[in-house]
Specification:
Strand content: under 5%
Helix content: over 70%
Radius of gyration: 18 Å
Distance between the termini: 63 Å
Low-confidence stretches: none
Largest sheet: none
Structural class: mainly alpha
Number of strands: 0
Number of domains: 1
Mean pLDDT: 82
Amino acid sequence: MTDFFLQNQDIIYIVILSILLGIEVISHVPAILHTPLMSGANAIHGVVIIGAIIVMGHAHSGDYLALILGFLAVLLGTLNVVGGFVVTNRMLEMFKKKK
């Protein structure tokens, strides 16, 4: 197990720094820009979902790590896209004229 971390130490550092940077950037986004950014995130996660499906399709039947990570990417990407559309729809409903 420690060999895995030693071999992939640079990648693990990059992922951790990316997470911290993402949290810092997202926390400083003004509320007025949230809906346009959510639409962009939906488009990006659509690409992530397609990529994950392709990875799962090309994975060998014994490569459980690729299958599990691909499944998680499809699941979490789908949840993000659906949640983004729900939030965007609710925000757009606020601007419609009331009957």
